[in-house]
Amino acid sequence: MSTEFPPNNDEFQLLDLLQAEATSLPALEVNEKLYLRLRLEIKVAVESIDEPLLFDLFRTIFDEILRVFDRLFLIEHKLNELDTLLENLSILEVLQFEIRYLHEFIDTRAISMPGLSQRLVDTFDGISYGMSHDVKRVFERELTSDLRTKSIPVVYGSISHAHGLLTNCFQQTLITLLQALNPKLDPTNLFDDFEVRLRQSLLLCNDLSVLMRVVKQAGVEGGSQALEAVVDKTLEFRDGSMQYLMYRDWRGYEHHALALVSSIQDNLDSTDLLHRFGCYLEVLYGHVKMRAVLKDLISGTGEGSEVDG
């Protein structure tokens, strides 16, 4: 299988690095413990549902999400074995169909279920929106059709990045659904990835802070160069750190951001949109700083201090 990816000297170095880091990769038994913990939280959540049709709906969705995690666990376990790259690509191809089925199920059956509360409609709508965004990003941009003809480092990098995006996507999806049924759920206790969430939240705070400064500067100075910087940073955030926002914030960010970008690109007066976008970013930044993973860090540095320094 590996003969389809003839290695060069750089690729042998990558193999050495992967073998050196193999012991630090999560073992299968760790994922088995996580799987059992997810099943337990799902059991607690669905036991609160009295309506049989709603129970079956959530049961179906949770089963499909666990199926996705099964695939992701398998990819993660094989990620340090370069001779299984093609196997991982095949798993991702299967995963693509399964995720698209789940997205279609949520987008049609779940959202349109008779008698569904507006709160659950909004929950499913947010999940559908976020999942659609990530599916396109992974399967239409990252895992392109010609990937099998690329070199080992390119294939490995694409698989690793796709795995990370999908893992984040379905962690968010599962947390959102569980909290809709069990508001007392603490998401920091669900997945053993506190350090990962901390790094993501710190990066998010930093990028939001940079974007706020760029928007504020454009509002004060004006001029084409400052406005071009706003467009660049706004789109850069959308294609990067926005993935670390909660799904419920994605639509709001894109609404404000794309209205501003369109106004600037059409050479219209963007003063009011700059102000609104700046205010929105400040609120968003405040919400991110309230996350549990940042609570102790921020309280230790002072109420008004910026996380990014």
Output mean pLDDT: 81
Between the first and last Cα atoms, what is the distance in angstroms?
A: 48 Å
Strand content: under 5%
Can you tell me the residue ranges where pLDDT is under 50 for at least 5 consecutive residues? 1-28, 299-309
> Biggest β-sheet: count, sense, barrel?
none
| Overall number of strands | 0
Shape: globular
List keywords for this structure.
globular; 309 residues; 11 helices; mainly alpha; single chain
Summarize the structure.
This protein is mostly helical and 309 residues long. Helix content is 75%, strand content 0%.
Plain-language structure description:
The chain is mainly alpha-helical and 309 residues long. It has two domains: 2-189; 194-301. The chain has eleven helices and no strands. The protein has helices at residues 9-21, 28-46, 52-78, 85-110, 118-142, 152-181, 194-221, 224-239, 247-265, 271-289, 292-301. The model is unreliable at 1-28 and 299-309 (pLDDT under 50).
What's the structural blueprint in terms of helices and strands?
Elements: H1 9-21, H2 28-46, H3 52-78, H4 85-110, H5 118-142, H6 152-181, H7 194-221, H8 224-239, H9 247-265, H10 271-289, H11 292-301
